[in-house]
Design a protein that fits this description.
Length: 346
């Protein structure tokens, strides 16, 4: 089944063609980051308009790179929430138009579920050497497993029971991990988004000199990053005029604190569910510190780990096409009344 995936939930316009939920024929991503960078964050109205400008070209490019035409596509999958309402509506309207014109099924896909599905993509189908994939994991990654989904808007620990069912084990009570990265990045004067910038700085030193607090939420598997974020912002406020103040040390120590929290909670989730397989997902899963620490912890505790290539961690349409395939396989199908749900629950 050739599925055309469409993703426009935030600031990336992406289209992909994926065969049987796994084999990626194309995955085209147009990032708007440079446009939003001057505002220090994503401006929803601008994001929606930019999606309108480029969606037709991106879909055409995805078909061209796959060597297919629209008549070869068997179903259209689109992320219809959560995300920015105006941005989601652009991809959704385009997907409906394609499905209607071609007379093929339309499938809405939950954006977070799509992030999890990035783990099913066969990375050998593209010219890409994801060392983590090749070294650490089963090439036919299958449920059940525990998934840590860490993105700009969400932080979830999921028990993925099968291709259609996820149980939420824990979630953030306040900021998402990516949001904390971006806010700390902004306070440190780094360009938006702060996550990849902090990752780069931390890669240079990787020493946790400051030891920011690691908050837990009782015995639960929930997360809370607002205390950590406030501690970092206060530290910056207090020390920024000091000659010894180092942006790199502060960024690194913050990243170490986030990573410790994410890794320890993931291990706890494995213990509580009895799972021995862990999959990362979402933009923050591209973080080198998190990948390294998770790899080390999983090795130590004998857990099997899967981490998609960074390009499949951040927003992309291949993951949406994969999610659409598995929903379609289960006989699920949406009508032309499918709507965008900015706050769609998991
Ligand atoms: O999954 P994603 O592309 O979009 C959402 O669904 O939100 O995630 C974007 C988030 C941003 O907060 C960005 O700063 C963060 O992922 N991110 C990173 C890295 N790459 C992207 N955070 C830490 N390290 C990275 N290398
Ligand atoms: Zn995302």
């Amino acid at each position: 089944m050739n599925v055309l995936g469409i993703e426009t939930s935030c600031d990336e316009t992406s289209a992909a063609v994926v065969v049987d939920g796994r084999r990626v024929l194309s995955n085209v991503i147009a990032s708007q980051i440079e446009i939003h960078q001057i505002y220090g964050g994503v401006v929803p109205e601008i994001a929606a308009r930019k999606h309108v400008d480029c969606i037709s070209y991106i879909v055409k490019e995805a078909l061209d790179q796959a060597g297919l035409s629209l008549s070869d596509i068997d179903a259209v999958a689109v992320a219809n929430g959560p995300g920015l309402a105006g941005a989601l509506l652009v991809g959704l309207s385009f997907a409906k138009a394609v499905a209607f014109a071609q007379g093929i099924p339309l499938v809405g896909v939950h954006h977070i579920y799509a992030h999890v599905c990035a783990n099913y993509l066969d990375e050998n189908s593209k010219e890409n050497s994801n060392e983590d994939f090749n070294r650490n994991s089963n090439k036919n990654w299958e449920p059940p497993f525990v998934s840590l989904v860490v993105s700009g808007g969400h932080t979830h620990l999921l028990h993925v029971l099968d291709y259609h069912t996820c149980k939420v084990l824990g979630r953030t009570r306040d900021d998402a991990a990516g949001e904390a990265f971006d806010k700390v990045g902004r306070a440190l004067g780094l360009p938006y988004p702060g996550g990849p910038q902090i990752d780069k700085l931390a890669g240079l030193s990787n020493v946790d000199t400051i030891r920011f607090p690691r908050a837990t939420v009782g015995d639960s598997l929930d997360f809370s990053f607002s205390g950590l974020k406030s501690a970092v912002l206060q530290y910056i406020q207090k020390n920024k005029h000091d000659n010894l103040f180092s942006v790199g040390n502060c960024a690194t120590s913050f990243q170490c604190a986030v990573t410790d929290i994410l890794v320890s909670r993931t291990l706890q989730a494995c213990k509580e569910t009895g799972m021995s397989k862990v999959a990362l997902a979402g933009g923050v899963a591209a973080n080198n510190g998190l990948r390294g620490s998770m790899r080390q912890a999983c090795n130590e505790y004998g857990l099997q780990l899967h981490m998609p290539s960074p390009i499949y961690c951040t927003d992309n349409a291949a993951m949406v096409a994969s999610g659409g395939y598995y929903r379609r396989l289960a006989g699920e199908l949406d009508g032309y009344d499918l709507n965008a749900h900015p706050n769609m629950e998991m």
